[in-house]
User: Fold this.
Amino acid sequence: MCGIVGFAGERPAVPVLIRALKDLEYRGYDSAGIAVLADAGGTLSITKKQGKIANLEAALSSNGPLAATVGIGHTRWATHGRPSDQNAHPHLSCNGEVVVIHNGIVENYAELRSELLTRGHTFLSETDTETVAHLMEEHVASGSSLIEALRLTAARLEGSQAIVAMSAAEPGVMVAARLGNAGGIVVGYGDGEMVLASDLAAVLPLSQDVAFLADGQLARVDREGAAYIDLSGGSATVQRKRIPIDPVSALKGDYAHFRAL
Ligand code: GLU
Assistant:
């Protein structure tokens, strides 16, 4: 299980995402990538590279929409599909509308993949994660909101997952789900901006006002705040608290102590 980060605000997202991914490097990883909404029309731009975050930074400096203010990022530790640029997250649905990052293992991915292939989807990676993007795309195409698409998709997944997605159809929105224990999802409340991550260490430099998703909870996050539901679709109560620690201390010493479990 590796690193997840997300940011929605008014300042450029790429430097925030890269900084947050670096805060998660201690977990180990084999590749890194980000997706940002390149413009108000909601065009998604994905940059991902095998190897160190430095490789991703080099690719971004020649090719990324650096002014984007909303985006998600991932450091991968491969479980399904070798480490490669193509298997790195984020993964995009066929129609280019839904982009997904994921920690964990979709245990029934082979069954889902063959089902999706039968329905005409094309896969660009060998990962289990890509099934999530295609399933979500189908729900969005049938009229579901992004959070509803993730909730309905979650019902099809076996295993433990932490999932974050964005859509060109809902610019400015990130959705997240925690299913079982594939690492956590922590949401951080800033001043006119919001952040999320798999680990508190990546959130604390931006916010000490945080909420932790429990197993079976989902979040819809935009730059103004967050709303929470559970797998039944009803509203969920999250554990929100102020972390009494300064970010400098949080980035020293024993990282494991601050993980969102
Ligand atoms: N199972 C996914 C993959 O192989 C996610 C791995 C991870 O948690 O980093 O891409």
User: Anything to note?
Assistant: Confidence is low (pLDDT under 50) at residues 253-261. The first helix runs from residue 13 to 23.
